[in-house]
Amino acid sequence: MFKRNILSILVSLLIMYLSLANSHAFDKVPEFKIPFLDKIVHSIMYFTLMSAILFENRKSLRGTSHLFLIALLPLFYGILMEVLQFSLTETRSGNIYDVFANSSGILISILIWPWCNNLIKKIFRY
Q1: For the chain, how big is the Rg over CA atoms in Å?
Q2: How many CA within 13 A on the CB side of residue 48?
Q3: How far apart are CA 119 and CA 126, in angstroms?
Q4: What is the pLDDT of residues 54-74, one digit of tens each?
């Protein structure tokens, strides 16, 4: 099971690092004056996580309701990261708007999955 889901595990670990690292660790990252950039980044991270989960488990997916059940994994993971930011870190804080941004990335991944899955089937001929 771990071997089949290595990509989603690695993405999860990267999200954990980015979520729980001291905010001063990112002081040298250039600052862009883009409104809501933080929320866009959250959406992209959880879009990537959900897409990795879907890709790695594409052969075992059974319908749309199954997609939404699987989506609970990254959703609860995102909520856990916000709770841990609030409770474990001194330079970070949990934010309900981050949970909404995470959810939007997950939802976008689910919505485009049928198209992507058809493309993957054509490319890999399975």
Answers
A1: 16
A2: 14
A3: 11
A4: 999 988 888 888 889 999 999
Here the tokens at position 78 are 């995102």
Q: No. of H helices and E strands in the chain?
A: 4, 0
C-alpha distances in angstroms, 118 versus 23, 44, 53, 69, 78?
40, 22, 16, 21, 28
Q: Which two tokens stand for residue 118?
A: 């058809």
Q: How far apart are CA 68 and CA 36, in angstroms?
A: 26
**Which residues are CB-contacts of 1 (< 8 A; sequence separation ≥ 6)?**
none
Which tokens sit at 20?
A: 């729980």
CA distance 8 to 15: 10
pTM: 0.88
Q: Which two tokens stand for residue 1?
A: 């099971």
Of the candidates 8, 20, 80, the residue with the CA atom closest to the CA atom of residue 48: 8
90 three-state secondary structure: coil
